[in-house]
Design goal:
Elements (H helix, E strand, L loop, with lengths): L4 H19 L6 H8 L3 H7 L3 H25 L4 H22 L12 H24 L6 H18 L3 H18 L5
């Protein structure tokens, strides 16, 4: 009995996520993804018209999974600093750790890809939502979205200077503490 199209797509996206996470976009072929999924290349092309489409689906899947993890953990934490620190360390360190383990995966974070830009937009929205009430109560003139953007892209810059995953998490903690203190929160 044949699987429904949605199940086949999910299988292909799961396989693509594994392959892209290991080899990045540039070194991955549709053949690699099909092999990992246990389907033929023509069958993969019936599900996704090209590598860009399956890449976008894999990035979307990783983003959704990371956001679910972050939201669940943040819901259990008290205080802005703890929530923001967890969210930023989880999101920012994940990419750093992946690139440390598989250097070719660095292009999964390339902002030239619309799907990657969307990941950054989504996380900025998470950060803005976390800080919104504190920004409002402190009568800060900057919008939460602008502050969130500075934090998120600041973490991207930390990747260039961090020596290892532990250092990356430490630098993220410093950055989060600076933001929380600047908006009148308790760090």
């Amino acid at each position: 009995m044949s699987r429904p199209r949605a199940a086949k797509e999910e299988l292909a996206v799961e396989a693509a996520t594994k392959v892209f996470s290991r080899y990045g976009y540039a070194r991955t072929t549709m053949g690699d993804i099909a092999e990992q999924a246990g389907i033929s290349r023509p069958a993969l092309y019936l599900l996704f018209p090209d590598k860009d489409a399956v890449f976008a689906a894999a990035i979307r899947r990783m983003d959704e999974q990371k956001h679910r993890e972050i939201q669940a953990a943040v819901a259990r934490l008290d205080g802005l600093h703890a929530k923001l620190l967890h969210a930023c360390k989880s999101w920012g360190s994940h990419g750093f750790d992946l690139i440390e383990a598989h250097p070719d995966s660095a292009d999964l974070f390339d902002l030239r890809f619309p799907a990657v830009r969307k990941v950054y937009d989504n996380f900025q929205a998470v950060v803005a939502d976390l800080i919104r009430e504190q920004v409002r109560s402190a009568s800060i003139t900057e919008e939460p979205e602008a502050l969130a953007r500075c934090l998120v892209f600041g973490m991207r810059g930390l990747r260039e200077t961090a020596r290892n995953g532990k250092d990356m998490r430490r630098l993220i903690a410093v950055q989060v503490t600076m933001l929380v203190r600047s908006i009148g929160g308790h760090a």
